[in-house]
Design a protein that fits this description.
The complex is a heterodimer of chains A (149) and B (142). By secondary structure, chain A is α+β, with helices and mostly antiparallel strands. Chain A is 20% helix and 33% strand. The longest helix of chain A is centred in the middle third of the chain and has 14 residues. Chain A is elongated, with a radius of gyration of 17 Å. Chain B starts with 13 loop residues before the first strand and ends with a strand. Chain B has a single domain, classed as Roll (Thiol Ester Dehydrase, Chain A). Helices cover 23% and strands 35% of the residues of chain B. Strand 2 of chain A pairs antiparallel with strand 2 of chain B, so a sheet runs across the interface. Chain A: Belongs to the UPF0336 family. Chain A: Pfam families: FAS1_DH_region. Chain A: It comes from Actinophytocola xanthii.
């Protein structure tokens, strides 16, 4: 079943809060092989002008998976087939880097749904804010659900 | 030293290139760190069943590694204002010690009046681009 284009404009309820920890940032930095000290050493982060260690630029994808993809997959009416889904693109626009101590929450918006050559294209915008309403990053992603051929 | 520092950039100048090996162990480590447990990134059988040529790297891992090219050059990752990429080809990671070699390069596409610049990043595997439209907008040092 192709995804319903009427889903354009749909937004999911605000996610629960994810508290960003120093250990998780360090683990993420190690997993991408990034040795920058501002990701692991609070003193290096302070010297660079940050109140705590910051997270690598693609760190917000963790929240995208944990909350946005989860919301889509759990939405039975949408009918997204996770097994046929691939990530088409991803982009981030930063107000500032994510940092340890951030209490982040997000809203996932479906901006458009296209059906082309048997494949579905889902364009998403995810607004990531702190729980006291500071915008931190806006992520955009395209998910592609390959048709069954 | 090859490439130019962020303080003295001009359109056309190159960032210091980098190459990174990605092994199956790296994929497992990334899966845990990023909470992305899609089995196509660690299970040969699943990758096979969905028609992939083998276990493939997370597109977001390749994008993260390509981002290092830009943030290493910037020094301060907070000077990265926007970063995006398309995932156009998979990086197939063999079940051995050597893994897959991803080669990265970057070029200043445009220096803007507002003190920002556009950097175009190229990531290749086996000679072919794996990221499309990999673009970073950065704030240049004053």
């Amino acid at each position: 079943m192709p995804l319903d284009p009427a889903y354009a404009g749909h937004a999911y309820p605000r996610s629960e809060v994810y508290e960003v920890g120093r250990a998780k940032i360090r683990e993420f930095a190690e997993a991408i092989g990034d040795a920058n000290p501002v990701y692991r050493d609070p003193e290096a982060a302070a010297a660079a002008g940050y109140p705590d260690v910051i997270a690598p630029p693609t760190f917000p994808v963790l929240l995208f998976g944990k909350f946005s993809i989860a919301a889509l997959v759990e939405d039975e009416a949408l009918g997204l087939d996770y097994g046929r889904m691939v990530h088409g693109d991803m982009s981030f626009a930063y107000q500032r880097p994510v940092r340890a101590g951030d209490r982040l929450t997000l809203v996932t918006h479906i901006e458009s749904v296209m059906n082309r050559a048997g494949n579905d294209f889902l364009n998403l915008r995810v607004d990531v804010d702190t729980d006291d309403d500071e915008r931190v990053v806006v992520a955009r992603a395209q998910l592609v659900v390959r048709g069954e051929q | 030293m090859s490439g130019t520092g962020p303080a003295e950039v001009a359109a056309g100048s190159a960032l210091p290139p980098m190459s990174v090996r990605v092994t199956r162990a790296d994929l497992v480590r990334y899966a845990g760190a990023a909470l992305d447990f899609n089995p196509i990134h660690w299970n040969e059988k699943t990758a096979d069943e969905v028609g992939l040529p083998g276990v493939i790297a997370h597109g977001m891992l390749t994008m993260a590694i390509a981002g290092r090219l830009v943030t290493d050059w910037l020094g301060d990752p907070g000077a990265l204002l926007e970063y995006g990429a398309r995932f156009i080809r998979p990086v197939v990671v063999p079940n051995d010690e050597t893994g897959a070699l991803v080669e990265l390069s970057g070029k200043i596409r445009e220096v803007r009046e507002d003190g920002t610049a556009r950097v175009d990043v190229t990531a290749t595997f086996e000679g072919k681009a794996v990221l499309g439209k990999a673009v970073a907008i950065v704030r240049l040092p004053a």
